[in-house]
Design goal:
single chain; about 325 residues; mainly alpha; 14 helices
Length: about 325
């Protein structure tokens, strides 16, 4: 049991890395199944279209799914098109906030599609099919040659053994695909490392305070969900009893629409009066009625986790 508890604690502490790893493994497994079971290169003039569809369309679908399951995006968009202003922000500030939110959301949504493309390039099946039918490859390899060259080029994915004797005449598409795949992986890791270093470098709080902040948010979310269930159960019981007993309900305090809107705003950092969440800010600014509630300003990338406390639940 101790080992199991340690494993659970490790997963909780590194839930972001574990989550990305699981998504990447599932994506890689799906790509492998697709390339073996579903993908069959036609080896004709449709090679380019067929191979490109299998390489890029699933990646695009995974990218859209990444947006759909991100709770922070839906927290930003929900109700933003109504005439009522949910949070006191200038149009310029609202645009800046959207950009600050969409940048990390896009980065997270890109994990699965980039994994698909990288694994597909390493496997080389999709690339060989697409490249063998591309006009660029045909012009490059079949320049000043007969039409037989083009017919043999599109047959490469289906009959590599027969064409191995003419390896000096045709490119090694598998090698090209794998090189591009490794370059893509190296580029992704480099960008991810640089982005993480920059966001941590410009973090407005120290490492230990950041650690405490994340602990507080997890605990606050646990208490919020517990209290919300308890409050909803009591309200449901009162309303149900009044329905069956044909009586008027007793006064019952529940947050107003305005209260819900205030704690649903995206978090902004204020170094003068620091709050660890919008609920923390709400209860310390006279239920959000103080002028200080609308004050803030900074949206550090390193504090994006504040709005993702409930990211384990899809906002879709």
């Amino acid at each position: 049991m101790d080992k199991l508890q340690k494993a659970l604690d490790f997963c909780i502490r590194h839930q972001t890395v574990v989550g990305y790893s699981i998504v990447s493994l599932l994506t890689a497994a799906s790509e492998h199944i697709f390339s073996i079971v579903v993908f069959k290169c036609p080896c004709d003039s449709n090679n380019m279209l067929y191979g490109s569809v299998f390489l890029l369309v699933p990646a695009f679908i995974l990218f859209l799914l990444g947006y759909m399951v991100n709770a922070r995006m839906w927290r930003l968009l929900t109700g933003s098109c109504t005439s009522e202003q949910r949070c006191s922000c200038s149009p310029q500030g609202t645009c800046t906030r959207y950009c600050h939110v969409l940048a990390p959301v896009t980065a997270r949504a890109a994990v699965a599609p980039l994994t698909w493309i990288a694994v597909a390039l390493l496997g080389a099946s999709f690339y060989k099919c697409a490249a063998s039918g591309s006009d660029t490859m045909r012009k490059l390899m079949c320049k000043d040659k007969t039409d037989d060259c083009h017919r043999m080029l599109v047959k490469i994915p289906c009959n590599e053994t027969a064409l191995s004797k003419k390896a000096d005449e045709f490119p090694n598409l598998q090698a090209q695909s794998q090189m591009i795949g490794w370059l893509l992986i190296a580029s992704i890791m480099t960008v991810a490392l640089i982005s993480t270093c920059v966001s941590r470098c410009y973090s407005p709080v120290s490492y230990l305070q950041l650690k405490f902040w994340k602990i507080y948010l997890n605990k606050e979310q646990e208490v919020f969900e517990s209290k919300a269930k308890e409050h909803a159960a009591r309200l449901a019981e009162i309303n149900t009893n009044c329905f069956f007993e044909a009586t008027d309900p007793a006064p019952f305090q529940t947050p107003s629409n305005e209260d819900w809107q205030k704690i649903s705003c995206l978090y902004t950092f204020n170094s003068e009066e620091q709050y660890y969440s919008m609920i923390h800010k709400y209860v310390n600014t006279n239920r959000g009625n103080s002028v200080r509630f609308g004050q803030g300003g900074q949206n550090p990338l390193g504090l994006g986790f504040v709005d993702e406390t409930n990211a384990s639940e899809s906002g879709f």
